[in-house]
Amino acid sequence: MILDLNSRYGLNPAHSEVVDACKIIQPCTALDMGCSNGRNALYLSQQGFDVTAVDNNPNAIDMLQQIVNQEGLTNLKAQVYDLNTAALPDNYGFIACTVTLMFLNPIRVEAVIADMQEHTLAGGYNLIVCAMDTEAYPCPVNFPFLLTEGQLSEIYQGWELLKYNEDLGTMHNGAQLQFATMLARKPE
Ligand SMILES: C[S@@+](CC[C@H](N)C(=O)[O-])C[C@H]1O[C@@H](n2cnc3c(N)ncnc32)[C@H](O)[C@@H]1O
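^ thats the input. predicted complex w/ S-adenosylmethionine below
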């Protein structure tokens, strides 16, 4: 049996929203923001995207780089980068930021998202999944940053929202919280 790269290296499968986004988005330049061990970046590279994967954890980037070297992947660059700087050096057709915004400096998140939007090519896509803190479901986890109701859709006004929900999710310990999930397309 031929194993996909995530299985071969004992990584979780790619986030389901990344897998779903790949059903819509044609391979292009992609940025994985807060890539951790690279589960999404490896999946995207296997789908033919030209991937840059960034994280501020040098150990995570080293581990991913080892896989890149071992597999001879030519379409995946792994780089240490602090997202809080909000100074992306390139433009991308697809930027994915799954369960990462919550860990950023809250006073930088607005600038981080503005930078993401600015560095998305016309007609390109942003995918964001982020925990929320709402009146109905106060977040039980002390993340530095949490979205409020409707905040993300407000920030993406003028983009085409191909997917947007603020659905309830359940954590491993049974605690419930809302997550904003958005796939948006920048106007041409
Ligand atoms: C919960 S993990 C999500 C990993 C990945 N996006 C996924 O869907 O599996 C959050 C990641 O964000 C990274 N991170 C946190 N703060 C960061 C920052 N300021 N700059 C870059 N990455 C950061 C962490 O190191 C961690 O790898």
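The mean pLDDT is 96.
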